[in-house]
Design a protein that fits this description.
Blueprint lengths: L1 H13 L6 H25 L1 H4 L17 H22 L2 H25 L3 H10 L1 H10 L4 H24 L1 H7 L4 H5 L1 H24 L5 H23 L3 H31 L2
Helix pairs in contact: 1-2, 1-7, 1-13, 2-4, 2-5, 2-7, 4-5, 5-6, 5-7, 6-8, 7-8, 8-11, 8-13, 11-12, 12-13
Amino acid sequence: MSLVVFTALVGIVRAPGDIHPVIGFVALLCIAVGAGAAGALNMWWDADIDARMDRTRTRPIPAGRVEPGEAMVFGLILSGASVLMLGLLVGVLAGALLAFTIFFYAVIYSMWLKRATPQNIVIGGAAGALPPVIGWAAVTGTVSLEPLLLFALIFIWTPPHFWALALLKKRDYERAGIPMLPNVAGDDETRKQILLYSLLLAPLGVAPFALGMTGWLYGAVSIALGTLFLVFAWLVYRRREGDAAERAAKHLFAFSVLYLFLLFAVLLGEGMVR
């Protein structure tokens, strides 16, 4: 959730043109509320499986702190309010993109893909990749190549990030009946897919620099981080037994968060000094 808001901020700052600070804050607030609304609807729908997973059993609904109906109404109200405010106060395109993001995450991903296919994370990753596009549209009222590149970067980053976690939480997903890739195709296939997506991710991370959209600082950082990502992915691919395999998956999962944060932090810094 923090990365969702942060990447949306980068979209706002990197977009050409000016936006009043108050309007920019409203846009970021609406995106944050919309993301929270999608999360609330996800937890309402997934309350049954959340109760069976160690990772999620302390969430408000399975823990008994919130009733399912309350969560659903809360999520729907926040969804409507965030989309309406963003559309009326900032821009129609930004509001429409936020509405699509909430719908895609809560309905397409949570209610359908998550329980239906091991490609749930691949397709569902589109929802988490849209915030910088929404931020860009809030400033410009349009969508162009740069925000689409940021979308692609997050979209391709999502599978190796979550599959590293899935390798660690395979039994959790098995208890919940969620067809994550390790449970359906096995650990070795998951490791191969992690490596393949990482091979796509590393050059994609450098693409904004290669296309002249960023400065040399981003270029250097993206090359270094992409190389490290490939190293961690290779270690996951090679280390397949015992504690070494678990450590490799943990290290990749932790580094993947740092990777995305640092790339977008440099994008933010370069955007602020333009």
